[in-house]
Amino acid sequence: MTVGRVSAVAWPGHGPLAVALATAADRTPPFPGIGPLPDRPIRLILTPTRARFDSLTRDRLPPWSEGAAFPDAGTIVLLATGPPDRLAAALRHELAHLALRWRLGHPPPLWFDEGYAAFAAGEWDRLEALRLNWQIARGVHMDLADVDRALRSDAADAQTAYALATTAVLLLNRWGGAQGLAPLIDRLANLPTFDAAVRATYHVTEGDFEARWEREVASRYGLLSWAGAVGLFWALLALLLVTLVGLRRRRDRARKAGLDEGWTVPDDEGPTA
């Protein structure tokens, strides 16, 4: 079926959903830093099962993935088993991938690609989940290369990586002031590297940006933020448990060292019956 410039393909039972999503895709609002989607045809495929989704995406995506965008072909594939509101959000996310790639003409860094799509789709629940992430709160370090790797790993690590990628894009958006991401995206389309685009837009190197982003993540999502998210009582209780576990381990090590004093290991005389 066709709605405007969107051709939707669906299996029996998903026709009305396909029409609704195709209509949303055809009327999608402008994207931050880019504007409206170019007037190009879009194919939307709603797959009824995970097996069909994996087949159409050639098993190139992790098992938790429910959407895929193929910018060169102007095609979006969605797993049509979730609730309609989640499918609508997934559609906006994948449309953002098309918008960004069509504007740039080449793939951006993976973290920027995914962070931009999450930002454009308004996936703020990812940031709320990041406030509850104990690994980030206690200072586990992830640079942008780590984020890229985690984006295609297991579901738990990927969710953290998506949230971190979103924070990086949001920082760049704030640096752009009233123009947001538009100046950076304009330069990404015309300069050979992400570093060159960042230098020309913000007058810092890519490494400088990464260091500032890491400091912001530590500041925004450190222990204080985590404590506020989980509640002071539960935060203090968790910290108390962590402290007690540490004390128990030190006591056990000291006890073991005391038991080992004065003992010698005899020469191996072979097994005994």
Separate helix tally: 13
Major sheet: arrangement of strands: 1-2-3-5-4
Rg over C-alpha atoms, rounded to the nearest angstrom: 25 Å
Beta-strand percentage range: 5-15%
How far is the N terminus from the C terminus? 79 Å
H/E order of the elements? EEHEHEEHHHHHHHHHHH
Largest sheet: 5 strands, mixed
The helical percent reads 55-70%
Determine the mean pLDDT: 85
What global shape is seen?
globular
Unreliable segments of 5+ consecutive residues: 263-273
The total count of strands amounts to 5
By secondary-structure content and strand pairing, the structural class works out as alpha/beta
Describe the protein in words:
This protein is of the alpha/beta class and 273 residues long. Helix content is 58%, strand content 8%. The protein has 13 helices and 5 strands. The chain has helices at 15-26, 50-56, 84-104, 110-120, 125-131, 134-137, 144-150, 155-175, 182-188, 194-202, 206-220, 223-230, 232-260; strands at residues 2-3, 6-10, 42-47, 67-70, 75-79. A 5-stranded mixed sheet has the order 1-2-3-5-4. Helix 1 links the parallel strand 2 and strand 3. The longest helix is centred in the last third of the chain and has 29 residues, at 232-260. The N and C termini lie far apart (79 Å). Residues 263-273 have low confidence and may be disordered.
